[in-house]
Write a structure and sequence with these properties.
The complex is a heterodimer. Chain A is of the alpha+beta class. Helix content of chain A is 37%, strand content 15%. In chain A, strand 1 and strand 2 form a beta hairpin. Chain B has a domain at 224-324: Enolase-like, domain 1 (2-Layer Sandwich). The longest helix of chain B is centred in the last third of the chain and has 20 residues, at 305-324. Classes of the chains: A alpha+beta, B alpha+beta. At the A-B interface, helix 1, strand 4, helix 4 and helix 5 of A face helix 2, strand 3 and helix 6 of B. Bound molecules: flavin-adenine dinucleotide and FE2/S2 (inorganic) cluster (2 copies).
């Protein structure tokens, strides 16, 4: 490794949950580690660190991505939303509320990734039926296998959000 | 992950220039490269992030077809109206790849550059894998080879190319557009990956400092389909897959193109089958005979004879699906 590789730090500036953030990071720092270790936003979890489990899902510019596969440096100038940024004025997001009502979790490890992914899934228009939800939520694994309840929660939230927007 | 220098390229020229340096690697979506760096498959000293090359992030109409910019994200390609309408085989292959959130990161240019999923290749400590250490052998040849190749393998490498979109592109006779400081090369997707008889350690024909700028597809293929057979219904690599495009005159096949996925180190066109299908009626027994002819050169390893049957049936079923589209 060259000496410059050891010493490079990169100044980044991004928005996290609506708040502007500036930082100086090592090139190899992932967005996930940046959120968890530097910003103390531990909602996004590190399940596999290989893009396989979906527990680290966050929104970047409104689109869901695996934050373990994004470098913090690449996220500069972008807008990030984590599960901590969903509730507004002390009121839960409809997807969060639906997860509680549908009992869509056991251990809860996958839940913040599921919820962020579900918010995007509904926004993309991929929550039309249970099958469609199962397909478009397949990137979020649940070791407790709450899949039926998760699909039910997504559907419940989608229908409520449609009714609210009607 | 060992540390590296990070640069954002501000033009294609800049990317080629930086990408040509010793120890440099291009970073697109990062969904393969960052994992390789964690496992130790690659350890670049310089990452050249090409995310700001906005002109590579578009789908453009060209004479008689489309040019898909290398940086287009998989979901955006699959959901593009012209691709859904004219190239359903591609849209379907993409939507059956990876997961919704990975497809928001993964780029269409990076996709065919993904490497084999062979467990020996992906191990953190490697014993024998010619793709990890040229000359070290192939542990899969006599080891766990249930998911390995049935076409074009040699004892030096039995792995398969796992990309789904590349299979659709091969059936569509797509062309990969590659730029370097030496100029532009146009490489048919069918020739983009390297079979082990040529070089068991190689992945693709792309050289250092070469930048994929886009992939071109021409003649629309509305009667086309992609069938992916896998152990889970979603979010899983293929055991085998089949991409088919048909040019039909009523119930008669004027022309057919068939590419199989996850059966060889490159998408495998069934050329003998394609020749025999010309003039045949859909639903006739000639179809199965033609498909069988394409499998004459299939060879099983110790643990994967089932893949020959599976791939044959997948090809047959994909022909039906394409005719229904
Ligand atoms: C859990 C998981 C499941 C997956 N399942 C599937 C699946 O079912 N089917 C499937 O097809 N794929 C699957 N993939 C693979 C995924 O589609 C690829 O990783 C992705 O398409 C690679 O694109 P990228 O932009 O992220 O590439 P990167 O990781 O950024 O780059 C990959 C390689 O390509 C090079 N590169 C990238 N762009 C260019 C360019 N424009 N010019 C020159 N070189 C370039 C890089 O230098 C690197 O060597 C899966 C991946 C994961 C992590
Ligand atoms: S931690 Fe990112 S996908 Fe598992
Ligand atoms: S609730 Fe335990 S992993 Fe999903």
């Amino acid at each position: 490794m060259s000496a410059s590789a050891r010493s490079q730090t990169i100044d980044i500036s991004l928005t996290v949950n609506g708040r502007p953030v500036q930082a100086s990071v090592e090139p190899r720092l992932s967005l996930l580690d940046f959120l968890r270790e530097e910003l103390d936003l531990t909602g996004a979890k590190k399940g596999c660190n290989r893009g396989e489990c979906g527990t680290c899902t966050v929104l970047v510019d409104g689109r869901r991505v695996n934050s373990c596969l994004v470098l913090a440096a690449s996220a500069s100038n972008h807008e990030v939303v984590t599960v901590e940024g969903l509730a507004k004025d002390g009121e839960l997001h409809p997807v969060q509320q639906a997860f509680i009502e549908a009992d869509a979790l056991q251990c809860g490890f996958c839940t913040s990734g599921q919820i962020i992914s579900a918010v995007a899934c509904i926004e993309e228009g991929h929550a039309g039926s249970t099958e469609e939800i199962r397909e478009w939520m397949s990137g979020n694994l649940c070791r407790c296998s709450c899949y039926p309840q998760i699909a039910e929660a997504v559907e419940m939230a989608a229908r409520r959000m449609e009714a609210d927007n009607a | 992950m060992h540390n590296f220098v990070y640069e954002r390229a501000n033009s294609a020229d800049n990317a080629m220039d930086l990408g040509h340096r010793d120890g440099a690697a291009i970073l697109a979506g990062g969904t393969e490269l960052l994992n390789w760096m964690r496992i130790g498959i690659e350890s670049p000293d310089l990452l050249v992030d090409i995310r700001d090359l906005g002109h590579l992030d578009r789908i453009e109409e060209i004479e008689g077809g489309l040019r898909i910019g290398a940086l287009c994200r998989l979901n955006d390609v699959a959901c593009h109206p012209a691709i859904k309408r004219d190239f359903p085989v591609l849209s379907s292959a993409i939507l059956q790849s990876a997961s919704a959130q990975l497809r928001n990161l993964a780029t269409i240019g990076g996709n065919p550059l993904q490497r084999v999923r062979c467990p020996y290749f992906r191990e953190e400590t490697v014993n024998a894998c010619n793709k990890r250490h040229a000359g070290s052998g192939c542990a899969a040849y006599e080891g766990h080879n249930e998911r390995m190749a049935i076409f074009g393998w040699t004892p030096e490498c039995v792995a398969v190319q796992p990309s789904d979109p590349a299979v659709a592109f091969a059936a569509l006779d797509a062309v990969v557009i590659v730029q370097s400081t030496d100029g532009t090369r146009r490489i048919p997707m069918r020739e983009f990956h390297v079979l082990p008889d040529e070089d068991p350690s190689a992945h693709s024909v792309l050289g250092r400092g070469e930048l994929i700028t886009g992939i071109e597809i021409s003649t629309p293929a509305p009667h086309s389909a992609y069938l992916k057979v896998r152990e889970r219904q979603s979010y899983e690599y293929a055991l085998v897959s089949a991409a088919v495009t048909l040019d039909l005159d009523g119930e008669t096949i004027r022309n057919a193109r068939i590419a199989l996925g996850s059966v060889a180190m490159r998408p495998w066109r069934l050329l003998a089958t394609e020749d025999l299908l010309v003039g045949k009626r859909l639903g006739s027994k000639d179809i199965a005979e033609a498909v069988d002819a394409g499998f004459a050169e299939a060879r099983a390893l110790s643990g994967n004879a089932y893949k020959i049957t599976l791939a044959r049936n997948a090809a047959l079923r994909a022909i039906e699906l394409a005719s229904e589209n």
